Amino acid sequence: MNINSIFLFFFLLIVKMTAQEITGHVFDAKTKEPIAGVTLYYDGSTIGAITDLEGNFTIKSQYQNNAVLVVRHLGYETRKIQDAGNQGILKIALKEQVQSLNEIVVTSDPFSRKQKMKVFTLEFLGDTKGGRNSEIVNKKDIKLYFNSYNNTLSAYSDVPIIIANEYLGYRIYFEIEEFKIYFKTQSLDRIDNIHQTLYDGSTQFFDTANGDPKILKRRSNAYLGSSMHFMRACWYGNLTDQNFKLKKKFRDLQLSEFYTVQKDTVRDMKAIRFVGDNYIIYHKRKGKSVYRSTLNINEPDSVHTLDRFGNYKPFQSLVFGGYMANFRIGEMLPMDYGL
Q1: Dihedral through CA 119, CA 125, CA 130, CA 135, nearest 10?
Q2: Which of the two ends of the chain, N or C, has the fewest CB atoms closer than 10 A to its terminal CB?
């Protein structure tokens, strides 16, 4: 075996060890018949597949990850599978979605659909360049309701919300699970009136940039200083090299004062333990201002699993504020961006 053959052998071996591939079969839970055309994807990514006529699928990822696998098909309940890459060949049964009439709640809603849609769009897409240059394709499918008793605007949709983001070059499908805007008063004013905006759901990205250099530059700008950028820097342990600075009570922190690595669970994932509960994060771009964010950890000293993509779990325990919290759907990048 010559030197080139030896190099190729070890290169392919490394790729096989690093990459993650999952295969499986999707079928009707009642009839046991295979279901063709089922959409499967890692939540928040462009990585996915569609089942063939026999209900089979294969999904390949460049790196191992701990993202949730979403399984969606019209007429069936959406399923979310944790740790899909560690379960061997997946056998996924889908239950038919039971159609029911929407519950009628008798209460006053003082605002028109147009007024509610305006504030929903700004809070959902974001009042940023990406948000203002994005469009919700199927607004008619979104149901909006303002509860006058607790000054809360809620949004619902029976089908995924489709977003055309021309600014970052993505078409996004967002399957909404919860969306609520909590106002301080019975008003839709956003300035000094929104107490909190909560939204949760699964997101699938499709790249529409076609290599446009202007769009690729915008993506790079959206990435720098984002929570994704920060968490990836945590995985690599190079916060300083990525121009991040940590502070706690006005004191600069070393990386070892922020978290410790418990162990490498697999090649692309690490188990880390955060030392404290709240931090200030600064990010400086070359020739630009310093951006300030906050990070509150609801479960201090607990162990989190962090992968190379920047995904972490349990994700509910990390709450970003400040600059990073301004990122909404219009500035969101898929988890596999840049890898």
Answers
A1: -90
A2: N
